[in-house]
Amino acid sequence: MVESVIERITRGHFWDFHGGIHPPEQKMLTASKPIKQLALPKQLIIPLQQHIGREGDLLVKIGDKVLKGQALTLSTNPMVVPIHAPTSGTISAIKMSVIAHPSGLSQLCVFLDVDGEDTWRKKTVCADIEQLSNSEIIEKIADAGIAGMGGAGFPTHIKVNSKTDINFLIINGAECEPYITADDLLMMEQSNAIVDGIKILDKLLTPNFILIAIEDNKPKAIKALQQATAAIEKIKVCVVPTKYPAGGEKQLIQILTGQEVPSGRLPIHTGIVMQNIATCFAINDAVRHDIPLIRRVVTVTGQALNKPQNVWALLGTPINFLLKQCDVQAIENEQQPVIMGGPMMGFSVSSELVPIVKTSNCILVPSKTEMPSAFEKESKEVECIRCGQCSDVCPSQLLPQELQWSAKAKDYPQLEKLNLSDCIDCGACAYVCPSQIPLVHYYRIAKAEIRQQQQLDLKAEKAKTRFEARNLRLEKEKTARQEKHKKAAAARKAAMNIATPEATGAKSAVAAALARVKAKKAAQSQSQSQASTAEAQKNLAQSNELATEATNPVDEQKTEVAAAIARAKAKRILKQEAANKPISSNEGVKQTVTAQLEVSQPPSNDDKKAIIAAAIAKAKAKKLSKAADAVKSVNLAESTAAEKAVNLTDKKAKIAAAIAKAKSKALAKKANQETPITTAEDIHLEKIKAVRVESKDESDSKANAAADKKIRISAAIAKAKAKKKLKEARNLAGTVKNNDQDSG
Amino acid sequence: MTDYLLLLVGTVLVNNFVLVQFLGLCPFMGVSSRTETAIGMSFATIFVMTLASLLSYLVTTYLLVPLDLEYLTTMSFILVIAVVVQFTEMVVHKTSASLYRLLGIFLPLITTNCAVLGVALLNLRQQHSFFESIIYGFGASLGFSLVLIMFSAMREKLANADVPAPFKGTAIAMITAGLMSLAFLGFTGLVKI
Amino acid sequence: MNILLAILVLGSIAAIFGALLGYASVRFKVDADPIVEQLDDLLPQTQCGQCGYPGCKPYAQAVADGEAINKCAPGGEDTIKKIADLMGVEVQPLDESHVQGDTTASNRPKVAFIIEEDCIGCTKCIQACPVDAIIGAAKQMHTIIIDECTGCDLCVAPCPVDCIEMRELPDTIHNWQWDLTSIPVKQLD
Amino acid sequence: MAFWIASSPHNHNQTKTPNLMRLVIYATLPGILAQWYFFGWGNLIHIGIAMITALVCEFTVLSLRKKPIAHELLDGSALLTALLLGICLPALAPWWISVIGTIFAIVIVKQLYGGLGHNPFNPAMAGYVMLLVSFPLQMTLWQPPLSLVAVDLNFTNTLTTILTGFTVEGYSVEQVRNTLDGITMATPLDTLKTNINQGLTVLESLNNPVFGDNFALGWEWINAGFLLGGLFLIFKKAIAWQTPVSFLISLFICSFIGYSMSPDSSASTMFHWFSGATMLGAFFILTDPVTGATSTKGRIIVGLLAGLLVYLIRTAGGYPDGIAFAILLCNMSAPLIDQYTRPRTYGHLKGDK
C-alpha cells in the first residue's frame, strides 16, 4: 500500500477529491515581490491567546521593560502556548482589546510600547541539534510558543509529540486560497531553513516518508524546494493540481495518499501528520537559533492597495500599520471590507487595531470591482432552486442545499444526520450558489447552536444529578430527624411513666417547659446575668400563674400543690442554669461571640447538640478563612516559588476541613444545621483553591510557612475544642434529661 | 399467472386505493409527516389488509354463505378487522416500542381505515377467488404504502417550504395529494380489468 | 331460529377471536415503558419549580400521570412540542400562569448574581437553591457557582435584602453565535 | 473609510438564478422555431397569452404575500413555466385554455407552495395534466402540420381561431383541422395508438400522411430543435446531463424491447425519441432542478423511471403521450429517491450515515 502510494507520487499521479472550485487566483499581485522588512511600529497589541487552547499566566505587569523574545506568559498546561515580546519596549497596558476573531469581541491583550532599540534577550544558539534529545527539542518548541500557522493554531508541540507510528509527514505548501502568497514567498526565499525545520520534524516523528505538497501554480517555490531537498531520499516534493480547497488538511491527505481521515478522528490516527510550511520555518528558528515565534510572513494584498506585497510582520502589529505601509487607497463614504485570511475562509475585521497573530497569513483589502460580493450591503439571497451545484463542489460530499433547508428550519437532529459536523467551512458551496445563499454562514450559526445545545444538555445533566443528590440528602436528613424525634418522644414517655403519677397535668408540664425555656434564654447572656436572675424570677411567677390556670379550678388544693411543685421546679431550673452559665459564657469568649449569640432555638436535647456543633463549625470556619487569606496573599506574592507550598497548605487545609467535617457530623448527627455547615466548609475550600485576587501585604515564603502552621494549630484547637464540647454537651444533655425526669 | 400480475399492477397503480378510489385518506393524511412513521404504518397496513381479506374470504365462503347469513357480512368483517388490528398492535408494541409510540393513535385506528373494510367488501362484490382475494388485499395495501411513503417524503420536503400561512399544514398536504391523484390518472387504461 | 343462528355464529367467531387475542396478549406482553425517565430527559433540568412541582423529575412524573404538558416555562415551546410528541397529545401553548419573572426580555441564558456588599449571610438562598449552586455560611457572604447555576431565579425571592439579581452571561468568543449584525464597526481614518 | 463586516466566503462566481432561467428560455428557441415553421403561429400565440397571465398571477400573489415583487417577478421562472406550457398546448386550443392552465400552474402549483424553489411538482406539467383531464376535447384540438392543412393558417387566422373558434373566413376549428383529404388529424402518437387498437400494424399506419417521410412530420424537427437546445444547455452546464441521458436510454431500451418482441404493434425506438414531447421533456422539464432529484444517482434513477413510465403510458395507457404524467410521477418520487441516494460523506464508511 505504502509502496504503491509512493510509486504513484513519484510518477506524479495523485488522487482527486470530490468537488472543488477554481476561483480567480490573483496571486500575481504579490507573488513576484520579495518579502519586505518593515520598520518597527509604535505600539504592539499582543493577545494572550493566539491559538486553540487557553491563555497562559501573565509574567509581566504594567510598566515592565521587556526585551525582544522575552516570554510574556507562562505555560502551565500542554494546551497553553506562551507568547513573547516581539521587540523590546515597555508594557503600557494590559487590557481588553479587539482581537483577530470574526466576532470582533475583545480579549485580554498586552500593549507594548516599542522603544525602537530591538534589543534581544540572551540567546543560546544550538549548534548541533543531534546533541539534543527529542524531549529537549519538544520543550524548545513549546517554549517558543509555536502553534500551527496555517490557520487553526493547534499547539505544535502536542502535534509533534506523537507516540504512534507515523507513516507520512506531509508538509502543506499547497496554499490553495486565492491571493495568499505568504508560504509561496517563504518557500522561495527560505527553502533551506524550511528543509532544516523539516529535518527536525523528521527526527521527532521518524515518519516513513515526508511529502511536501505544493500546488502547481507556484513553479519557483517548487524549484527552490526541489533543489533544497535533492540530496534527501526520504523527502518528496509533490506538485499537486491547483484546485480549491486542496490545502485543506483532509483534502490534501486524500490527494496525496488516497486515504480518508475517518469522521471525528485526527489524521494522526491514520499515521499521518501534517505541518504548515511557516510552522517548519518557525521550528527551525526556535530549535536552532532560539528565536521564539514573534514574527511571520503576512500577505498584504488586494486591489485597494497601491503596493500590495508580503511583509515580515511582528506579531501584535495592528493592521492599520500594515495597511499604511502598503499604501491603502481610502475611498470616501464607502464601507471597505478588510479581510484577515483569504477571500474564501477569511473573516472581515471590525477594527483597525486588530493585531496580527500567529495564525494570520493574509490581510486582503479588495476593491469593489474585483470582489463586488464582499461589498454588498444587503444579501442578494433568493430561494434555493435545488440546482445541486453546491453538492457538486462540496469537498466533503455533503448536501449543502439540504443542510441549508434544515439549518433554516433549525432541525438539528436532521443536520447531524446530514453530517454537518464534517463541513470544513471552505465556502465552495456559497461561492457557486446561483441563488447567492450565504450557505456557510447558515452552517456556522447552526454549528454554534448545536454546540451550545450540547453544552446545555451537559449542564442539564449535571443539574439533574445535583438536584437528585440534594433531594437524597434532604430525604436522609428528614428521616434522621424523624428518627430522633421518635426517640426523644419515647424517652419522654418513659420519663413520664416513671414520674409521680397525678402530680402534674400535661399542661403544667408544658408551662414548666416554657418557663425553663425562658429561664434558659435569660441565663445564656453573660452580661445580663443580674437581669436574667430577675427575669427568671419573673418567669417563675409567670409559670406559677400558668400552672394555676392550667389546673382544674374546682380542686384548689391540688392546684396549689401543682403550683408549688412547678415553682420548685422552676427554682431548681434557675439554679441549674446559673451553674451552666459560666460554662456557656466561657464558650462565648473562646468561640466567636457571634456564633453563640444568635442561637435562639428551644434547647431540646438534639437541638442543643446541633447548636454546639454549629458553633464549633463556625468558629473553625473562621479560623480556616483566616488561614485561607494568608494562603491567598502568599499565592499572589510568590506565584512561582510558592506554588508547591500553596499546594501543601491547600492539602493541609483540606485535611483540617475534613477532620472538622467528620467531627461536626458525629456531633450533629445530621441535625438541621448541617447544610450551612458543609457549605461553610465548601466556601473556604473554594477560596483556597482560587478566588478573587485582592491582597494588600506581600508576605514571603515565611508567611506561607506561618500560614501552614496556623492551619495546623487551628485544626488542633478545633479538635481539642470539639472534644471538650462533646464532653460538655454530654454532661449538659445528662443534666437536662435529669431535669426532665425530675419534673416528670 | 399473468392474470394475477395484472390484478396486482391494476390495484397498485391503476385503481390505487388512495389516489384513485379515495379510500384510507385518514391515515394517509395522519401518519405521513415523517417517512419513518409512514414506513412503519405501511408494514402494519400491508399485514392487516392482506390478513383481513384472507380471513374475510374464509368467513364469507365457509360460514356466512353456507349458513345463508350474508346479511351479517359487514358486521363479521368488522369483527375480523378489529381482531387483526388488535393483534397487529400487540405485535408492533412488542417488536418496536418506538414505532408504537410514533404511530400512536393511528395504529388502533387502522380498524377504522375504510380501505381495510373496502378491500374486504370489494373482494366480495368482484367475486374474487381465494388467491385473488389475497392478491387484491395485498395489492391494495401495497398501493396504499407506495403513495403513503412517497407522500411522506414529499411532506418532509414541504416542511421547509415557505407556504402561505392559511395553507400551512394539512391544507397544502391536501393540495399535494390532489396533484398526486392527478398524476396517477396517467395510469388510466394501463390495465384493463 | 335464523336470529339464533346468527347470534350463535357471531358469538362463536367472537369467542374464537377473543381466545386468540387473549393468547396473544400473554404472548406479546410488554412491560410498561419508562416514560417518566424519557420525560425527565426532555425537561430542561433547571429545577426551577415554576411548574408547581419541586423539580423536573416530579413534574415528569406528574405529566406521565396526566398533568398538563404546558407548564414548563424555561423549556418553552420546544419542550412542550417534544413532550407532546412523546405523549402523543396535541401541542398546547405555554401556560402563562406558570411563568415567573420577565421572560420576554431576552432568551439569553442568565445566572444569578449576588451583590456581595449587600449580602447579610442569611443562608435563605442556599436553602432555596435546587442544585446547591450557592455557597456560604450564616453571617458569611454567599456566592454563586456560575457553572452550576441553572438560572431558575428561585433564590431571588427569598433574599431579604434583595441582593440577588439575574444577570446575562457575557458574550465570549466561545459562546458567540455568529451574529454579524451585533459587531460594532469602528471607523478607520 | 469604514469597515464592512460580512461572512466568508467573500468571493462569488457571480452566477445568478435569473441568468440561468434566461439561458433555459433562449435554449428553447430552436424548438420553438421548428414548431412555428411546421405548425404556424398557434403555439406562439399561446405562449404569449400564457406569459402575460403568468406575470399577472405572479404579481397578484406576490403583492398579496407582500414579497419583493420586482425581484421575484423578473427572475424568469414564471416566464419559463408559461413558455413550457405554451409549447405543449394544441395550437388551435381556445385562449382560455392557456389562461386557466397558467393560473393553475402559477398560483396553485407554484405560489401556494411558497414560490420558486418550493414547488414539488413542475408547474407547467401539472397545469398541462390538469387541462388534459378537465378539458379533453379542447386539449385534443391538434392541428396538422401546415403543409397538410387546407385553410391558410396565417397569423390573423390563427389568432381569431384561438380567440373565437373561427378563422377570419369563418371556418370552424373542426374544419381547420381537416386535411386536404378531408380527414381530421391527430398527433402521430395518437394516430398510431388508435390504429394499433384498431388492429392495424405499425407499417400500415405509417402510410398516414401525418407521419411524413421519417417518423412524424414536423414533430421530428421540433424534437431535433429541442435536442439542440438541450445539448447547448448541457454544454453551458446549466442542466445536469444525467437526467436526460438516462431518460433517453431508458426509453430507448424499453421501446427496443417492445419493438423486438412484436415489431408489428410497436413503434420503433426512434419514433419514440422524435415524436411527442420527448426531447422537450428530457432536456427542459425533467431537468427542472426544483422538482427533480438532487444527487447524481438520484437523477439517473429519475431518468430511468421516467423513460419506463413514458413508454408504459404511450403503449398501454389511456393517453397518447405520457411525458407530462411521467414527469409528475417522477416529481412525486423524487424526494423519496433523494432520501435513499444520499452520497457517502468524506470520512464516513458506506452505509454509515
**Radius of gyration of chain A from CA coordinates:** 38 Å
The proportion of strand residues of chain A reads 5-15%
Helix proportion range of chain A: 40-55%
Largest sheet of chain A: 6 strands, mixed
How widely separated are the two ends of chain A? Answer: 96 Å
- Determine the mean pLDDT of chain A: 75
H/E order of the elements of chain B?
Answer: HHHHHHHH
Q: Which residues of chain B sit in consecutive blocks of at least 5 with pLDDT less than 50?
A: none
Oligomeric assembly: heterotetramer
Helix content range of the residues of chain B, please? 55-70%
Description:
The complex is a heterotetramer of chains A (744), B (193), C (189) and D (353). The longest helix of chain A has 60 residues, at 439-498. By secondary structure, chain A is of the alpha/beta class. Chain A has helices at 2-10, 28-31, 134-143, 156-159, 182-189, 191-205, 219-228, 249-257, 277-289, 319-325, 389-393, 400-408, 412-417, 428-432, 439-498, 506-524, 529-550, 556-590, 593-597, 605-637, 642-668, 674-689, 701-743; strands spanning 36-37, 43-47, 57-58, 65-66, 73-74, 89-98, 106-114, 168-173, 209-215, 235-240, 272-276, 295-301, 309-314, 335-336, 339-340, 347-348, 362-364. Chain B is an all-alpha fold. Chain B contains 8 helices and no strands. In chain B, helix 3 packs antiparallel against helix 4, helix 3 (35-64) packs parallel to helix 6 (114-125) and helix 3 (35-64) runs antiparallel to helix 7 (130-158). With 189 residues, chain C is mostly helical. Chain C is 32% helix and 7% strand. Chain C has helices at 2-27, 35-42, 56-64, 76-87, 124-128, and strands at residues 110-114, 134-135, 143-144, 164-168. In chain C, a hairpin with a 7-residue loop joins strand 2 and strand 3 (143-144). Chain C is elongated, with a radius of gyration of 27 Å. Chain C starts with a helix and ends in a 21-residue tail after the last strand. The model of chain C has no long low-confidence stretch (mean pLDDT 80). Chain D folds into 2 domains: 17-185, no CATH class; 201-209 and 234-339, no CATH class. Chain D has 17 helices and 1 strand. The longest helix of chain D is centred in the N-terminal third of the chain and has 23 residues, at 42-64. Chain D is globular, with a radius of gyration of 21 Å. The chains are: A alpha/beta (744), B mainly alpha (193), C mainly alpha (189), D mainly alpha (353). At the A-D interface, strand 14, strand 16, helix 14 and helix 15 of A face strand 1 and helix 1 of D. Strand 14 of chain A pairs parallel with strand 1 of chain D.
